[in-house]
Prior knowledge:
Order of helices and strands: HHHHHHHHHHHHHH
CATH topology of the largest domain: MetI-like fold
Distance between the termini: 55 Å
Number of domains: 2
Shape: globular
Largest sheet: none
Number of strands: 0
CATH class of the largest domain: Mainly Alpha
Mean pLDDT: 84
Amino acid sequence: MSITVFVIGYYAALLAASCLAAYFNKRSIFMLLFSLTLLSFVLGIVGGVAALRFVAGAAGLLALAGMISFGFREFLIAIASDEMAKELRTAPLTAAFGMFVVFTYAVMGIFAPLIAPHGEAQVIASAFAPADENMLLGADQLGRDIFSRIIYGTRNSVGLALVATMGAFTIGALAGLLAATKGGWFDQFLGRVADVIMSIPSLIFALLMLSIFGPKISVIIIAVAIIYAPRVFRLTRAVAGNVVVMDYIEAAKLRGEGTWYLIRREILPNSTAPLVAEFGLEFCFVFLLVAGLSFLGLGIQPPTADWGSMVRENATLISFGDITPLIPAAAIALLTVGVNFVVDWMLWRSSGLKES
């Protein structure tokens, strides 16, 4: 009886919502809801009630994410300045969702000691103990609280990736601005150096450096900065190269302004938008590389909590049908997707493809 009530209620809710969207002339919403109805009908025939429950759960999660994104965007509009609020009103819900994810991770990283119920290296139970009132996600292979380690992993994993990205961006952007401003043999030399570094596979280069100098935090930051600085260099060189040919740059040169003045006051302010978007993209690449190195055992070393190493350490649970090791992997994927949503919106804004 309960199954019949669920199926009837599920289809009735979808059809009612579709009819309401059509009545109020909300074509996009109607197409979405009625497409979901047809998809549910097909999946229900093939997979039965279990498939319908899965579709209903997925649709509910998407609806919840949409409501959170809308509310967070309205909150940002309310507290922002008039100019920023005007820009935020053009942000799609995907960008608002990305900003909410970034905000959530920032709060988790900054206030990790206050949020986590236990220390990141504190042993409080037996190995692989199940979840209880003291451990929301159970214990790992040493009896440490997995939930607390995920919270602390936000600070460690994201913090390391952010510092490494800043290092790569500083080196690459500075070299690109200097190459575009000076030109000549200096530009050609930096370009060839960047080509040589980019020709080496990033993972092999990182593994080589970590094998030689050891898996230290400083070595990871330097290796990642060297790997991704050429990408930033090439973009900065291309963007700044379109600026240095402008008339106001020539006027500044005729006034006798130096190289650093041209970079700080003329070139950099007119190249900010694409560089900020590139920073977000580079962060995603660096974050995934750092997580991969930790999964291989050459990233952040124990007992420091790190999402990549947590996936490796608790992979045994997957054999027993426990999806707990997938939670830090999902945290990595969620942050990457959220940052990409924000970057896509920023690239759209900087490209000039704005609504009139």
